[in-house]
Design a protein that fits this description.
It is a single chain. The protein has 257 residues and is α+β, with helices and mostly antiparallel strands. 15% of the residues lie in helices and 25% in strands. The protein has two domains: 114 residues, LysM domain (Membrane-bound Lytic Murein Transglycosylase D, Chain A), CATH 3.10.350; 108 residues, Glucose Permease (Domain IIA) (Distorted Sandwich), CATH 2.70.70. A hairpin with a 4-residue loop joins β9 and β10. α4 packs across α5. Belongs to the E.coli NlpD/Haemophilus LppB family. Pfam families: LysM, Peptidase_M23. It comes from Immundisolibacter cernigliae.
């Protein structure tokens, strides 16, 4: 098991297809580098890390800290933590956490206990505020599959189109990842828009930007690919402080819609 040293004020990322959990499985020999890369990408998606040239510090000691960071909408209690400490970490009142998890006064919690966080299971999340300049659709096409908030659901939109058609930055920002380190996403670009927002673009045919590049709203960053041998599909996510939100709730209404 890997221990990740990372400070993050949000629920961690649950990668599309639960890639973060796959990354935590033990890996023999030559797979170790791929496992580490997958963890780094999951942390970028969670808002915990950038790609400034070196990954977060990693040591091989056993710990469940990574499990506390990675699942979206959940926190695994660590030794010495209190409900008030966890509430401050995620910007929510400890009494709201207690009500959500059925914990009564004196609010005793135990190491290893799983806590649900606001924003999951019908509890409203913070109201997102769009990056400067607002959002635009990343590509033309029809939404095949929408966002599903439930655990294990679709963390974004799957947009059907033609293989090779342009994929554009949904808002201005900086490319913090460009590669194919998570199998569930295929070729993937992640753009950081500000301290709160990331957007992710998966199943790409060709990536046309490099890590560290500044991009403008609507700039072409890739071409559409496919998750398999079928027609073109873009998997698109928006994450607010590491937690996936429904892109359709912040994107402009499609023309004619």
């Amino acid at each position: 098991m890997l221990r990740i040293s990372c400070r993050c004020g949000a629920a961690g990322a649950e990668a599309h297809g639960d890639a973060s959990q796959a990354a935590l499985r033990p890996a023999p020999g030559g797979q170790a580098a791929r496992v580490l890369l997958a963890l780094v990408i999951a942390l970028i998606l969670s808002g915990c890390a950038g790609r400034s040239g070196r990954p977060p510090a990693v040591s091989p000691s056993a710990s469940s800290q990574a499990n506390a960071l990675l699942p979206s909408g959940e926190h695994v209690v660590q030794r010495g933590e209190t409900l008030a400490m966890i509430g401050r970490r995620y910007g929510t009142d400890y009494q709201a956490l207690a009500r959500l998890n059925g914990i009564r006064s004196p609010y005793t919690i135990y190491p290893g206990q799983r806590l649900r966080l606001p924003g999951v299971g019908g509890v409203p999340a913070p109201t997102p505020i769009a990056p400067a300049g607002g959002w635009t659709w990343p590509t033309a096409g029809t939404t095949l599959r929408g966002y599903v908030a439930a655990h294990g659901g679709n963390k974004g939109l799957d947009i059907a189109g033609q293989i090779g058609q342009p994929v554009r930055a949904a808002a201005a920002g900086t490319v913090v990842y460009a590669g194919n380190g998570l199998r569930q996403y295929g070729n993937l670009v992640i753009v950081k828009h500000n301290e709160d927002y990331l957007s992710a673009y998966g199943h790409l045919q060709k990536i046309t930007v490099a890590e560290g590049s500044a991009v403008t709203t609507g700039q072409t960053i890739a071409s559409m690919g496919s998750p398999g041998d079928g027609p073109g599909v873009l998997h698109f996510e928006i994450r607010y402080r590491g937690t996936p939100i429904d892109p359709a709730a912040v994107l402009p209404r499609p023309s004619g819609g």
